[in-house]
Structure formats: structure tokens, C-alpha cells
Amino acid sequence: MKTADVWEVTIMKFTIVTGMSGSGKTRVIRYLEDMGYFCIDNMPPVLIPMFSEMLTSAGGKFNNVALVVDMRVGDMINQLIEQVNELKKKGYDASILFLNADDETLVKRYKESRRSHPLENPNGLLASIREERKRLSKLLTEADYVIDTSDMTNTELLDEIKEIFVSRESRNIEINVMSFGFKYGIPLDADLVFDVRCFPNPFYIDELKRKTGNDIEVQDYVMSFPTAVEFMNKLSDMMEFMIPLYIEEGKISLTVAIGCTGGKHRSVTMANKLGERIRDMGYEVNISNRDIGRE
């Protein structure tokens, strides 16, 4: 196998979400999807090898994958541990997350949802739950992570998922720094908006009017004012403080928009400077200038 192929395989992470019916697997898969995972519900174990090869051939587009495999697949659930071990042998980072809950909680949840249990035992719901627990006992033993959701609120469950998975990809966030002109409207996708129209405008300097914040002459002019330097220092400090909080909260993308009047000089300068500062913090940054080409 080529070195590049090995590298692609080893960076892909598979999380197998399994456990008792009614324990919260659907909610967990939604949380993981919000965190940037590519998620599939009710995956037959026999299809996992072929599925992993398909994702690998996509060239790194699917680095984090979560699959729900539970008693809905019937007796095929017995193949799950074997298939997970095969993933590990091939170099994938594969782990099993088992969601559990006590019998009383599961009975209560089923009665509230009025859904049927995947194992329809003629002796009733409790018998179905106990039969499922027996069949899944080996999976519970082999699981890398076990969460008992019996007394958990939705918020507590989300916090537990973050504790397990956000820490594994603690810097996995897409950061976009965008310049724009207020005269053309505030970007709709901005999470944070900063107004730099308070600083002197290079537009009124003849030799700078036709240039942009991508030109060193404009940057030198904008940053020649102590208040501009102080603003950038304070904004950088704010980003260094806030980005880890966004990551901990489960945010997978952050767009910071910096605006001036026309979106050509001051905002472009500040966007470039902030992007450099954030890169120095160890994050990947995309810098864009929405209105730099407007007349």
C-alpha cells in the first residue's frame, strides 16, 4: 500500500454508537452531526468494511464518522465487534460508544414515546428490554466509552459527549475572518461583527485611495495609529479567550466579520492582521474580502 493511502486511512476516525434501545442514541448522533461528524443511523455491521473503503476513496473529506448500530439489525449485531476490530487492523481509529440506562427508565421512555421495542417479546416490554440487555452484554464489556443516561438531562448528555469527543479534536474548528463594507450590508453568516470605521480612512489619502488593505502602504498607514494597534491587541486577546470556549461548546465553524465603510482599506487591513494573529495561535484560518472589488 502506498504511503499516502496509509496516511488517509489512519486519520479517519470511526465512532460506533450502540447500546440499549431508548437510551438516547438518536440524540447523540444528532449531537455528533452538529460537531461535524458524518453520521449514518442503523448501519448493518456487514456493510461497514465496504462503507469505510468508499469514504477513504473520497480523499479526506470524511475524517470523522459516526455509525449507529443497534438491535434493529437483528442477529447481525453479533458481528459488530468483529467489524470494529477489522477497522482497527486496517489502521482506522475506531471506538465504540455504548449508551445504557436502567430498566425502569427505559420502560418509562417507551411508554412516553409509544414506540415498539425492536425485540417484541410476548411477555411484554420489560422482558424485551432484559432480553436486549443480555444480547448486548458483550458489546457493553468491549465498549471504549459507556454513558448511563438514566438520570441525565439532555444538556448533561451533550456535556458528556463534548467531554469525550471534543477533547479528541480540540482544535477542530473552521475559522473565517471576513472584511466587508457597511454600505453593502452586514454579512448574514457572521457570528461576530466588529466596526473599524472609527479609525482614519486611507480613502482620503490620494496615494492610498486606489490601493487596498492588501497593500503594505495601506496597512502601514492604518496601523500607524496607536489606537489601531491597541484595538488589534485587544481583539486578538478576545479571540484567544473565546475560540476555545466555542470549541468546548461544540461549534465547528466561526465567522468573524470586520467592517469599514467600503470594505477596501481599514477592514481588509484588520482582517489580514487578525488572521495572522489567529494562525499564530495554532488555528487554521480562511481570510476573505467580500467587497474589495466593488467600485
Give a verbal description of the structure.
By secondary structure, the chain is of the alpha/beta class. It has two domains: 3-169, P-loop containing nucleotide triphosphate hydrolases (Rossmann fold), CATH 3.40.50; 174-289, no CATH class. Helix content is 44%, strand content 18%. Helix 2 (25-34) packs across helix 8, helix 5 crosses helix 6 and helix 11 packs across helix 12 (266-280). The chain is elongated. The model is unreliable at 1-10 (pLDDT under 50).
Give the proportion of residues in helices: 40-55%
Regarding CATH, which class of the largest domain? Alpha Beta
What is the CATH superfamily label of the largest domain?
Answer: P-loop containing nucleotide triphosphate hydrolases
Taking Cα atoms only, what radius of gyration do you get, to the nearest Å?
A: 26 Å
Instruction: State the total count of DSSP E strands.
Output: 9
Distance between the termini: 53 Å
Structural class by secondary-structure content: alpha/beta
Report the principal-axis shape: elongated
Helix and strand element order: HEHEHEHEHHHEHEEHHHEHE
Strand content: 15-25%
Low-confidence stretches: 1-10
* Largest sheet entry: 5 strands, parallel
Mean pLDDT: 90
Tally of structural domains:
2
Spatial ordering of strands, largest sheet: 2-3-1-4-5
CATH topology of the largest domain: Rossmann fold
The CATH architecture assignment of the largest domain turns out to be: 3-Layer(aba) Sandwich
Helix count from the secondary structure assignment: 12
